[in-house]
Amino acid sequence: MSDRPMISIENVSRYYGVYKALDDVSLQIGEGEFFSLLGPSGCGKTTLLRSIAGFDVPTSGEIRIDGVASTLLPANRRPTNMVFQNYAIFPHLDVGENVAYGLKRLRLDAAEERRRVADALDQVRLTGLDRRKANELSGGQRQRVALARALVMRPKVLLLDEPLSALDKKLREQMQVELRSLQQAVGITFILVTHDQYEALALSDRIAVMFGGCIAQVATPKEIYQHPRTRKVADFLGGMNFLRARLLADRKGDVSVDAAKFGTVNLAKPVGFTTSDGHVTVGIRPERLRLLWDDEKAPHELTGRVENRAYFGEVTHLTIGVDGLEQPLSMVETNDYGADDLPVGAEIRLAYDPDAFVLLADDEMGLRAR
Amino acid sequence: MSTAAIASSPEKPAPAKGIRWLHGEEARGLAMISPTLLYALALLLVPVLLVIAYSFWTQNYLEIDRTFTFENYRLALTEPIYRDLFVRSLWISMLTSAITVVFSYPIAWYISFHGGPHKNLWLFLVTIPCWTSYLLRVMSWKVILGYGGVLNTGLMAAGVIDQPITSLLYNANAVVITLVHSWAAFAILPIYVSLQKIDRSLIEAARDLGDGAVRSFLRVTLPLSMPGVISAFLIVMIPTVGDYVTPKLVGGKDGVMIATAIQAQFGKSANWPLGAALSVTTMVLVSLAAAAVVLSLRFAVRRLR
């Protein structure tokens, strides 16, 4: 990130009547960054993106784009361009005319305009399709046209509103790879709105997770997956086994808790951590639990029995009941040793690493990222 | 209803063709439309054919001479009186349609884009004038435009004019004013429908790509609402060419249109073949004019890109 943020959002709120779509959101996005706004539907991520694009005016707060106060600037005067969720391809124009749409206003000479349209189509690998009618395009092609039409304007920021949600899984994964390499090629800021946590993890430099109009956490994909701040963030980004643990010691940089059958666990203490009743929520990812086979030994073990089993091809998801734990544990096991053949009711042993536990803030306490 | 339709269906398949056809989607569709189709054939197609047939015959006092002749068409196309009436009818109907569309578009646009949750109420209000008789609506324009009418007395009371304007009523302008008012609702509805169908994100995309409100309207909204504009234009133009009541009531000498001449041939002059020839010529001219309008509107919009 450079010194000056490309996008700076300062205390932005948006009310629809009494409904708070955005609640005092502050955020900075750097130049050339691939940034994702991740959250369930209705969390305010699209409202925030539309405020950056100029389609929605915040009730209060300020948006600066490349240092320019832009809160009230209309969409056509912002250095941003958008890829719409349904792509918004002009049905009365062909592919070339769609891509050239924004260039017309610049009054380039014909050769220059043609060159820029051709370059943009090359960039999204639609070379030579400029005479194609809008209704003759597949979903993937429509998306590429929408990308080319935005990129040809050479925006400072490209906004993407759930651009991959209308595509089938295979094509979506292919477009994710292309989107990432496209962003690295053009080097401009991309802001992606998505509800798909894997998409956000795979594409982004940083992710903001939003719930109920607030940003719950902003961090790199790895940080946000491994060290989610709150229970909700942890839950939204994949599976997590939650435990109520009793606080044993509250030291300067870390805490010790009694995590029931898992024994005493030491955890790093997040900033602003408090507890009122002497209990905290800790979590461990399913893939950090491991089955022990035959007489294999591990420093930290637990016994339990298989309550449920779901086969996912390369992995098997197991639900393990452990005496003394309120909730059964979820775990993910590769099928190399035969986890897919474990009968329900089988007695198993599992290994865990106490360092894999994270301390999670309760949601009321930790909803607002600082 | 559908059993009755099937019973009266003329498209009963030949038994040899097998029973499968009878149960097909197509057969059911034909059965559904067959009452309407029969009605249309009997009361639309047959009379039109009859008119076309008459136009090639000759009136011989009380009898019809059924030898084939182009004489009626020669008269219809060369007599200056008919030529003038054709030109005037087409001109009045084109002008009426153009003005109606120009006035209706903003209303339709407003309802579609800013009607909020009350769009249906707005549309209902638009149709209210149609609840009174067409004749009454035309008559009320006589009251408004007349020598001692609402407009003249109003303007005089306001001190804008000293004496009544005599050029308001009984001329082509009066016909156009009255027709525009009569047909506005029929133009607003198709334009509204085509505006409703426009995906709002297309307009946002235009704004996003740098267009201001006016340019995005000209480059996206207007071209995409063109089907509505064209149908509004035709819906108004085609019936008004042959309008009889309005010119008769508010047109005076200068507002006479072709329908009056046709009526005269079928009535007082008792020359049905000439009346038929005039009718057919009108139909052809309207079709040509309609095609010309459609093509030129399409061309004009393409230029906007």
From TrEMBL, chain A:
The lineage of its organism: Bacteria, Pseudomonadati, Pseudomonadota, Alphaproteobacteria, Hyphomicrobiales. InterPro entries: AAA+_ATPase (IPR003593), ABC_SmlMolc_Importer (IPR050093), ABC_transporter-like_ATP-bd (IPR003439), ABC_transporter-like_CS (IPR017871), Mo/tungstate-bd_C_term_dom (IPR008995), NA-bd_OB-fold (IPR012340), P-loop_NTPase (IPR027417), Transp-assoc_OB_typ2 (IPR013611). Gene3D superfamilies: 2.40.50.100, Nucleic acid-binding proteins, P-loop containing nucleotide triphosphate hydrolases. Keywords: ATP-binding, Nucleotide-binding, Transport. GO terms for cellular component: ATP-binding cassette (ABC) transporter complex. This is ABC-type Fe3+/spermidine/putrescine transport system ATPase subunit. GO terms for biological process: putrescine transport. It comes from Rhizobium subbaraonis. Belongs to the ABC transporter superfamily. Pfam families: ABC_tran, TOBE_2. The keyword Transport applies. SUPFAM superfamilies: MOP-like, P-loop containing nucleoside triphosphate hydrolases. Residues 7-237 form the ABC transporter domain. The keyword Nucleotide-binding applies. PROSITE patterns: ABC_TRANSPORTER_1, ABC_TRANSPORTER_2. One of its GO terms (molecular function) is transmembrane transporter activity.
UniProtKB/TrEMBL annotation, chain B:
GO terms for cellular component: plasma membrane. SUPFAM superfamilies: MetI-like (SSF161098). Keywords: Cell membrane, Membrane, Transmembrane, Transmembrane helix, Transport. Pfam families: BPD_transp_1 (PF00528). It is found in: Cell membrane. The chain crosses the membrane at residues 37-57, 90-113, 119-136, 143-161, 173-195, 216-238, 276-301. GO terms for biological process: transmembrane transport. Belongs to the binding-protein-dependent transport system permease family. CysTW subfamily. This is ABC-type spermidine/putrescine transport system permease subunit I. It comes from Rhizobium subbaraonis.
